[in-house]
């Protein structure tokens, strides 16, 4: 796309499931895998693949620990992830403002 | 996904290119194919396939006319498209409000 207000829409965040993950990690700071899966209604495989995209972009950290004998996967947003998410949200706000202008008479 | 604020994110509109098309059609009422292609920096094939998705959903009307001898394709949002776009924008606003809450201490 040319340089325009849609450029601020980072495709790494924009996919609906990843927008959900980043939003929840912004509100909750840390979320375990099961919580994200339930909140977003995703399958394990689907959530796992979106988490990998965000991890590879450096937007989230993934920690594997144990709760007793059960493995536990915990995600949190990195500083880069928080700042990219903030920029993404600002981009959405610009689009919303544009979409709410009165229509041009042509 | 479970019933949650992300449900308002209509995937037909959410794809970046289609969000661009719907935003431009909201502002300009009518756009021809070349204008959309330039504004959004898409290839002809790519724009064509996104336009077909929106047309098949009933969100836009596509009219083929002639400007002199040159064929001209003009798009406009339908009433359904406008109302679904409005609902989508309201969904984004909810996500933005959630993302701007102070983080929960856990």
Automatic annotation (TrEMBL), chains A, B:
Every Winged helix DNA-binding domain range: 18-96
Pfam families reported in the protein's UniProt record: HTH_34
Gene3D superfamilies: Winged helix-like DNA-binding domain superfamily/Winged helix DNA-binding domain
Keywords: DNA-binding
Alphabetical list of PANTHER family matching this protein: BSL7504 PROTEIN (PTHR37318)
Name under which the protein is recorded: Winged helix-turn-helix domain-containing protein
Natural source organism: Paenibacillus mendelii
């Amino acid at each position: 796309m040319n340089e325009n207000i849609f450029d601020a829409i980072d495709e790494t965040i924009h996919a609906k499931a990843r927008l959900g993950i980043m939003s929840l990690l912004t509100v909750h700071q840390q979320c375990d895998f099961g919580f994200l899966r339930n909140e977003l209604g995703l399958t394990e495989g689907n959530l796992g693949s979106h988490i990998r995209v965000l991890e590879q972009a450096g937007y989230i950290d993934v920690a594997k620990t144990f709760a007793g004998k059960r493995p536990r996967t915990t995600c949190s947003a990195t500083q880069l992830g928080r700042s990219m998410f903030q920029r993404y949200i600002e981009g959405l706000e610009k689009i919303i403002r544009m979409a709410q202008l009165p229509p041009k008479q042509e």
